[in-house]
Fold this sequence. Notes:
Layout (H helix, E strand, L loop, with lengths): L6 H23 L3 E8 L7 E4 L4 E4 L8 H21 L4 E8 L5 E9 L4 H11 L9 H8 E5 L3 H16 L5 H17 L4 E3 L4 H7 L11 H11 L3 H11 L1 E9 L5 E10 L2 E4 L3 E9 L21 E8 L9 E2 L1
Antiparallel strand pairs: 1-5, 1-6, 2-3, 4-5, 4-7, 8-9, 9-10, 10-13, 11-12
Helix pairs in contact: 1-5, 1-9, 2-3, 8-9
Amino acid sequence: MTEILKGKERRQYAEFLARAKGVGTLAEREGYEPVLVTLTAPGEMHAGTTVGVGGTRRPNPKWDGSTPADQHRWLSQRWRSYARGLHRHGVHHWTRTVQPHWDGSAHWHVVVWRPRRAEKWLESAARKIFEADTATATGSARYNHGIDFRTIKGGTDGAIGYVARAIAYIARAVSDEDRAEAEATAEWASTWRVRRFATSHDKVSVWRMLRRTDIDITPAGTDAAAAQEAARRGDYATFLESADRARIRVGYETVQTQYGDSTRRIVGVKVAGALFRRTRRWVAAGVVPLIPKDQGAGTGGAVGTETGGQTARHHRRTAPSTAPPAMTPC
């Protein structure tokens, strides 16, 4: 796998996998068991259908014109109700990946870590919440085809292995023979604005900020230092526990854009009311000419594809002239 991963693919795959493993670690500490839940939208929302034992594919004559975005929205609305019930029954750990069917329809694969006491409720509630609203696809038929529960062999290790395969396609960290499918799936998700990976735990922005080398929150206390250390070594479970105890949040400030509008931007993290700023930022360093590509060799100048007297602004990363203190009260 390390021979396949490159640049952004490596970073995205590593981050998603670390988050999934962290959720699984927290669940395993509580003695929960993973189960795979597959959810799809009602049959009339699918553009295609399968017929017969062999699964012959054909256009769906009852298709109502729904797009993958409509299907994803249908599932998201019901998932919010289901997730509230999960929380009430002590189910706090899950990961979700989204993939397209052969006809482009969206379907979800959710790994839910459940306590034994919630086993019956988990399935019965899903059947009620995710049943279709029409008379043609309700009851046992809808449950058998649109909602599926399967026990994952191998416990948490098996669950993380399953999620890792899905994450590999999301991050396009696949072999050359599978890259075309991964690229097509990425374009599908981008076109319909489908978020393909999510977990029950957030703090992703805090995680990314603490992994930076220009932020140091160790003066904020033992828990803050433990959270940053865990983030930098990729231990998402320990990071979540320490960040909750230290009350770490994203730090914002309001700035004026070049058009006079006000907007918020991330400038660091807050720890118990104190703001830790980044010490590096991108600034405009000057204007340099763009030299035609065929004239760039041997000139020592900036090489570009444009011709004529065009210019481009050159940016560099630098520390501010007066570096802000590591911690300032809010």
